[in-house]
Amino acid sequence: MEQIINSSTVKKFILPGVKQVIAVASGKGGVGKSTVAANLALALAAEGRRIGLLDADIYGPSQGLMMGVPAGTKPEVSNDLLQPIIAHGLQCMSMSFIASDRTPAVWRGPMASGALQQLLTQTDWQAVDVLVVDMPPGTGDIQLTMAQNVPLAGAVIVTTPQDIALLDARKGIEMFRKVEVPLLGVVENMSTHVCRECGHHEAIFGEGGGDAIAAEYGVRLLARLPLAMDIRLQADGGQPPLVADPNSDTSQLFGAMAREILMALDNNVDAGPVIQIMED
Ligand SMILES: Nc1ncnc2c1ncn2[C@@H]1O[C@H](COP(=O)(O)OP(=O)(O)OP(=O)(O)O)[C@@H](O)[C@H]1O
Ligand SMILES: [Mg+2]
User: Fold this and answer.
1) Virtual CA dihedral for 251, 254, 260, 262, nearest 10 degrees?
2) Is 112 within 8 Å of 31 (Cβ atoms)?
3) Does the Cβ of 31 fall within 6 Å of ligand 1?
4) Rounded distance between C-alpha atoms, residue 185 and residue 183, angstroms
5) How many CA within 13 A on the CB side of residue 101?
């Protein structure tokens, strides 16, 4: 199967090891894309699928840390392909497995896009049902390359409820719409803060933003995730909630999100095979 994407000036080829790719994105930095990507990937795996996790953040990769991959772990290379690092049952690939901490920061746009393309296509993905791509913040070259050059089966947009994040989320949504990538839904992260001492809920970043943007674009609000100390400690400690506490409220929210996304993906089997597009 090969899917043709509008331009006649591009060559494409199939990524043999992957059935469908979804991107977790947002216009704004620090809203929780990586946290959502990691936990969503784990929740999808808990539904019995084979899942890959690609950290597309070339400048600030975080999945090595979040997935508890020991610093300094390097992927093996066989047949000129990088073998994914298996962490918590997921096939993972990240620039942090390959480059030293300082190298990526000096890359300019085209180099970074090239590096991302290499990570994607030169990893020996092993019969992955869904590859979850943790996108870098923003809507610049790298994001556009990814949105355009990989036939994404869908995108999940992460936002926090405050106006400035919503404004940036809108830019992210518009970018995917422009290149005709289906929107799987919006995740409102850091919705309300739940005090660990007294259980009091406080909407630190405001209320209803996720609902509003989902309604504006006619897409689903997949989840409202609380701003919770446990999420940060577990995610940044290499044991995301889905691993640390699979029955927690947070894990169940991700479970429901995963099932909804799988339903959308399974109903859209023609979303396309995974292909890389090579500019002439
Ligand atoms: N719901 C939450 N509750 C508490 N902490 C959270 C929550 N979501 C994310 N965090 C924490 O916020 C920080 C930023 O999250 P994360 O790295 O996932 O954001 P990001 O959007 O991927 O950032 P970047 O744009 O830099 O890639 C992390 O320390 C993470 O653990
Ligand atoms: Mg991130």
Assistant:
1) -100
2) no
3) yes
4) 5
5) 3
Report the distance separating Cα 223 and Cα 262, nearest Å: 15
Closest ligand 1 atom to Cα of 28 = 25
Ligand nearest to the Cα of 226, by number? 1
Annotated domain spans of the chain: 19-267
**What would the pLDDT profile of 124-177 be if each residue is shown by its tens digit?**
999 999 999 999 988 888 888 788 788 789 999 999 988 887 888 899 999 999
Distances (CA, A) of 228 to 168, 182, 192, 242: 23, 30, 8, 14
pTM, full prediction: 0.90
The two structure tokens encoding residue 28: 């704004």
Which atom of ligand 1 is found nearest the CA of 31?
A: 21
Fold entry, domain 19-267: Rossmann fold (3.40.50)
CB of 60 within 6 A of ligand 1: the answer is yes
Q: Which contiguous run of DSSP H or E holds residue 129? A: strand 128-134
